[in-house]
Amino acid sequence: MVTLEMPMKVQPSDMVSILQFMENSYSHAFATVMPDFDEPKWVKLAGAKNDHGRRGKNESDSNSDGSGAGEVSVGSLGHPNMCRRPCVYVSTHRANCPKGSNCTYCHLRHPQRRTTFDKRQREFLRNLSDAEMLSVLLPFLKSKAMKMPQSAWKVVRLLEEKLQLAGGPQ
């Protein structure tokens, strides 16, 4: 397969907006408090059947976590960092989702709407080589790693090694 690389005119505002986007969107991924991954947290989905495939006598379809959605959905698993985007019914209409616990979108509260790149920025990012992408990301990641435990630097060092292998600046 032959790919043609076309030079792309890069505006200084592109890099500024990309860095601002990363600061706003991924700051939760570099929080100062490391999550506890030792104990898995299991969520009982409303309407889920017991081991025998039947609902128990006292089981109902209500959700006790107070999410306002009536029930937690499949898309809520991994909330807040690894879940799907918010369900339109729950987040905008404040109504029960017609798919209930089978909905593939998150039914729990999200702190703010995720920001996204516009079409030109997405195209710009797609056209970056690995070395270019890492040279843009590494300063941002280093500043976030300063506020984290020493173990976070393992990731930064791995990315620096990848940048060196890709032939980028050090």
UniProtKB/TrEMBL annotation:
InterPro entries: Znf_CCCH (IPR000571)
Annotated C3H1-type domain residues: 81-113
Compositionally biased intervals (Basic and acidic residues): 49-60
GO molecular function: zinc ion binding
Annotated keywords: Metal-binding, Zinc, Zinc-finger
Region (Disordered): 48-75
UniProt zinc finger (C3H1-type) residues: 81-113
Record's protein name: C3H1-type domain-containing protein
